[in-house]
Amino acid sequence: MSLSLRPFVGIAVIAVYPSRYPQSVLISERLSSHGKGGYQLPGGHLEYGESFDECAKRELKEETNLDCSSFKLVHVTNTIFSKEDGGPKHYVTLFMKTIVQDDSTLKCMEPQKNSDWIWTKWNDLKTKKLFTPLQQAVDDSNFNPFDD
Q: Which CDD domains does its entry note (predicted)?
C-alpha cells in the first residue's frame, strides 16, 4: 500500500470554559483546505514522536493563542473524505478535551486558514455546517463532551 493512502492522525481540541461559557466549545470556520466552509475545533496533525497531549497543547497555542496544560482523550472518529469533500483522504481524529481558565489572550493566529474563534453551545452545533470529524462527534448520541 502506498504511504499516501495510509490514514492520517488528527487531533481536535474540545476547549471548554465552563465558568464563563457553560456547555460551550471553541469553534471557527475553515477558510482553506478540505472542509472549507465548515466549522471546526482547534487542532491539526499529530507529528512524529509527539504525544497526544503535546499535539493538542501545540495546536491550541498555534491556532488560538491559548495556553492549557491538561488534556483528556474523550472521543475518536474515523473519517474517509470523499472527492467532493477534498479527498480521497482518511483521518483518525482524536478529540482531546481541555478546560480553559482564562481566554483573555484568545486570538485567531491563522486568519488565512480560519475565521475568528467563537464560543458556541454544543447543542447549537447541530444547526451549523461542520467539518466532517466534528459532525461525526456531534451526531454520536453516545458522546457528550460535558459528561464527566
A: NUDIX_MTH2_Nudt15 (cd04678)
